[in-house]
Structures
1.
Amino acid sequence: MNQPKNQQPKAVSLISGGLDSMLATQAMLDQGIHVEGINFYTGFCVEGHTHAIRKKDKAKPKRNNALWVAEQLGIKLHIIDVIDEYKDVVINPKHGYGSNMNPCLDCKCFMVGKAHEWIKKHDFDFIVTGEVVGQRPMSQRRDTMPVIQRESGAEDRLLRPLCAKILPATLPEREGWVDREKLFAFNGRGRKPQIALAAQMGISDFAQPSGGCCFLTDAAYSNKLADLWSARGERHYELDDIMLLKVGRHLRPRPHFKIIVGREEGENRFLEGYRKQFTHMYTTSHPGPLVLLDGTAGNDDLQLAAQLAARFSQGKMAETVCVELHEKGTAKRELTVAPLTNEEIPLEWYL
Amino acid sequence: MSHHQLDARRMLCPMPVIRTQNFVVKLPPGDTIDVLCTDPGALHDIPAWCRIHGHEIIGTQEQDGELMISVRVGVNSD
């Protein structure tokens, strides 16, 4: 007989900030389990950043939903920085990508694996997730759920309360730490059972019903990441790279350089923080955005970038626009250029 | 009791929370820490993290786009 390490069994729950993990955690709390939350920060999380950067999103709540959920449930939440370790998941996913650059199955194996390391280190008994069989096309299928158990190393210490009754009994159920009869048999993409359970549990306020929290599932973002790797000739990134992919308008007029154009005041302010790392420019004769140049650029390239900067300024209809250019390692200089017209900017330049 | 400063400027949430969490865990109860931030989201997230972990917010200040969130470490500094 496997005794829990603790008189009151302890579980760590993967908290995304969405409804499913909230329900799964509440189900464990209702059974008297001591639960603490864990949330992994990969650098690709949607919420927080875009709200913080873009001025137009200022009215949206800036709360971190995982923290908010933990507070609603009355549990601790441990937020773990996995930015560096996660790179291998994104760059070399053993199970491949989803419809974009989302390595969902590898991601889930990785996160449950990190949670498994955590419970061993902190003497907890098992791991809880809000997964539901059939909810997701890649990571939440009947055939991939055992893969996550196996590859994470968690094996039968991984309990999915929302669909446990249609899966083999796990250690916490077999040993009676958790009453299997009080768990659920949710299956498929529908959200009605979750919404009904939320009502039953008295949960009326929750964030997005599920998912949608990772930039890697976004086609436009994935295209920009693929372009970054292609232009650099290697599959590698730093945190700054993936942050910048979230911000501004990206255009690649030549294979050896691209520009990032702030779209509004909040983005310009965010890009300001990168001025020292990049050749950059802005229009001085007319109000306009800050433009960063990523790559290598000769004089013709700088002229072209300045014409693009002029195009996205309020001087786009003017005959000429003055652009102050700050080239890395050289003194600033001013260029006077004719803004490019829309017709002169091929669509394929836009990433 | 000691007083500390943590620079989390130019970081976007949740990094200021993670830095605060990782710093606070090394401190004894009663120590205080001023966390400097620029992401307005930290004004919500750091107090939320403190509430669920038993730490106390003893003040917040905002000046020229910079925020200072002052925390007193509680007993549950795990």
Note: Strands of chain B lie at 3-8, 32-37, 56-63, 66-72.
2.
Amino acid sequence: MSKKIVATTSLAGCFGCHMSLLDIDERILDLIELVEFNKSPIDDIKTFTKQCDIGIIEGGCCNSENVHVLKEFRKNCKILVSVGECAIMGGLPALRNGIDIKECIDEAYLNGPTAKIGNPEGILPNDDELPMILDKVYPCHEIVKIDYFLPGCAPRADLIWNALVALVTGNALELPYEVVKFD
Amino acid sequence: MTKKITIEPVTRVEGHGKVTIHQDENLNIAQSRLHIVEFRGFERFVQGRPYWEAPVLVQRLCGICPVSHHLAAAKALDVIVGAGTGDGLTPTGEKMRRLMHYGQMFQSHSLHFFHLAAPDLLFGYDADPAIRNVIGLAITPEFKGLAVQAVMMRKFGQEIIRATAGKKVHGTGAIPGGINKHLTQAEKDEFLHGKDPLNIDKMIEWAQASVDLFKGYHKANAEFIDNFSVFPSNHLSLVRKDGALDLYHGVLRAVDSEGKRILNDVDYQDYGKYIAEEVRSWSYMKFPFLIDLGKEKGWYRVGPLARLNTCDFIPTPMAQKEFEIYKAYTNGKPNNMCMHMHWARLIELLHSAEMIKELLNDPDLMSGELTTKGQKRKEGVGLIEAPRGTLFHHYAINDDDQITMANLIVSTTNNNEPMNQGVNFVAKKMMTGQKEITEGMRNAVEVVIRAYDPCLSCATHALGKMPLDIKLIDNNDEVISELKS
Ligand code: SF4
């Protein structure tokens, strides 16, 4: 059996879901027997070098860059999995959804006690190199089709492991009650 | 013609950034910038939340060292609930938190060095990207043992976190005024005498071996390690009141590149008197500086390199021995060589393992009062030495116990100017006179960022994330060479 190819990315997430993936610990050595990693922040591959079987998405979309990357993943991966609360429903960053983005920016760059003193000119980040911030933080499935969802913040390592093995081997996924958690 | 080079995303740097490098008509480097392209808005959206949520909310800035945010927030709230600053907690409260923190240091330093930085050293920064990573280590027979060791060291640290915080990523152990659980006898026995290799003695042995590995590498590659990126700077960190290295609590000290004190052991509740943040239009990450010295001269480094420059000694024997060797290399002067950050990091790894052992043998972890409180206050500041440097949390609340103000200066933000300086240094060295960027050049730029921080994700709490593009831009603002993510 040829190895399945896996790519991963972190959009508007905190990398906690990637850390939870690493928390499969010594099973990571089994994992690299089963799969080949392509584009991922864990390695140094920055662009898709081939079509992938499984794309693991951490984080929702908070700027134009996230949307672009997510669409690239949809194009290049047969199966997309939203891993964690941020990818599934925006997660903690989506707490800003009820607030005007201008207020968030003013608080960070103008009103905060240390910025107030250090930024008397009232400069705001606005360079062309910076991607556009979206009005809200969007869950991934509102941007592209997502095939599977793994809940948790972060999802337990065992849940990620079981799901990956099931996807790679084509066996049915067993989800004991204890591994599915929503915090 | 100025050329512009962009690198994005920075991989094996957890978080999202982008580098642009401008060349003038003679192909000299006119300007380099590390842009942080994410913004989150935490400072605003935590307003109105009940204060006790802060330790669990704000750690979601960064899943790589959530414990640091968890504890910095808890320390700020200790002040608010009247439990004092750091030394006011019950012995159990303080020691359980310290165990959590040193467990975090241990896992994070292992991850940073082995998973993220070592591949560049062992394979070379211009090696094939497909192999230049921790998976590459695991499938290369020569390095497989090291990869297994890296995985097990990280696992041990994560298990300590689970036992103290309740969960490996985003735990709930620290609460305002203390901690919510004891360590059990079974957990203690497991950490002290667990099956090989998962016990503390093995971890200390491996940590010492990691320091030796680096020293051996340094001996063989001194030219590269010493000169890859070196520039003078100020250095800032917490130190214990007696000048010892302390990663959990202390007073704020800064020294200049020659070792002169420029911030003399001040109380961090007053941080606002000493530190301000500049904003530049091209990055979502702010630029902190010491007010006294001003924007130009007041920037400083934080993290392992800075900590070993500010502290006078390390209060555990094996790490102290290594500290003496390390200090002797620069004749006791502050060390300004970026790649020595890894050396300093591994000495701290050893120190953390020694601290974990000391704490595990302390009976206070298994019984005693968990929390304390006193006269309620409206405002509090919590500082901690996160794996990548000093982390500031500052909150104010109203009569309804809702947060009304949150100010966060994360480790990576403190290192913003040094990382920009480092990028500029490497760009000048490697790209002057070059018309095209090679993969090796791009990675060289990333290597210097990685020395500080694989953790740009937390710095972007301010909005936006960081893939590293590298663009070479000419003086007509035309992009002439580009490596994209
Ligand atoms: S789901 Fe939780 S752990 Fe995962 S990226 Fe979001 S905040 Fe981090």
Note: The first strand of chain B starts at residue 3 and ends at 7.
